[in-house]
Amino acid sequence: MASLGLLLRVLGLVLCGAASLGLSAPTAPTSKEPIIGILMQTCHNENMKILGKYYIAASYVKYLESAGARVVPVRLDLKDEEYEKLFKSINGILFPGGSVDLMNSGYAHVAKIFYKLAIQGFGNGDYFPTWGTCLGFEELTYLVSGESLLTLTDTVGIKMPLNFTRGPLQSRMFQNFPADLLLSLAIEPLTANFHKWSLSVKNFTMNEKLKAFFNILTTNTDGSIEFISTMEAILQLKYVLQTTAKSVTDIQENTFLSKYIDEVTVRVFRPQIAGGKWSI
Ligand SMILES: *[C@@H]1O[C@H](CO)[C@@H](O)[C@H](O)[C@H]1NC(C)=O
Ligand SMILES: *[C@@H]1O[C@H](CO)[C@@H](O)[C@H](O)[C@H]1NC(C)=O
């Protein structure tokens, strides 16, 4: 649920020199500020390629930092054991929006490594919050279902309210939102959609793996296809994945909402101080 409206506006300023930023040796998180990894992407745009091989849209970094997190770029060219070390050194990961192949790209490869480690960690009583926005959301649907279930929708550059499919109090994501903000989200076009592909409610409902893993929180429609705009992992995996979709705040429409969502994202990642456990 990142500020994708903002993100898209600043994509031109995207940080492409990221490949040359050496990833300094990770240290175990000790302070209460979570350290969040952001997955990089290969630059495909000719203008961006000149600046570097990989990028992270700067807005994601600013957005996590503005709510008090620290950010670590997750490069695409590390060895498996280096990813394991990184996994143990950070508090969560964000799979950002963008446009790369969901099955055969560096982004897909590294997302899968972190997803598997998160699931394994959960099995061992640990948890590693994973947030997917836009492309990241789509990647998580692929990782969980093992299939490409997306369908083309007419959803590029459209602002819509959210259709809440369950009471906001029943979701971890929305339960602490102020009532007036929820009402605004439900009736005003505050979320910006910039995606060609969507997970339809129909395909979600027909897929046992997705149904077993996620609760749908909000949906939208492009006029003919009802698709999922927000979902989160269900209870038994509640600390593994908190996934939001391609419905995102338009920061100019409502800065308060955007700020609130930044904070919610970081709260997902913030370790509980007492006992060193995570809280959401
Ligand atoms: C369901 O998924 C298939 C791919 O497995 C896709 O071709 C189709 O368009 C999707 N249908 C809907 C309604 O989402
Ligand atoms: C919300 O759902 C209703 C009923 O399915 C639909 O008519 C309406 O268009 C949806 N609104 C949005 C913004 O997607």
UniProtKB/TrEMBL annotation:
The keyword Hydrolase applies. Its EC number is 3.4.19.9. GO terms for cellular component: extracellular region; vacuole. GO terms for molecular function: gamma-glutamyl-peptidase activity. One of its GO terms (biological process) is tetrahydrofolylpolyglutamate metabolic process. It comes from the Eukaryota. Residues 1-24 form the signal peptide. It is found in: Secreted, Extracellular space. The active site is at residue 134. InterPro entries: Class_I_gatase-like, Pept_C26_g-glut_hydrolase, Peptidase_C26. Keywords: Hydrolase, Secreted, Signal. It is an enzyme of class 3 (hydrolase). The keyword Signal applies. Belongs to the peptidase C26 family. This is Gamma-glutamyl hydrolase. It comes from Delphinapterus leucas. The lineage of its organism: Eukaryota, Metazoa, Chordata, Craniata, Vertebrata.
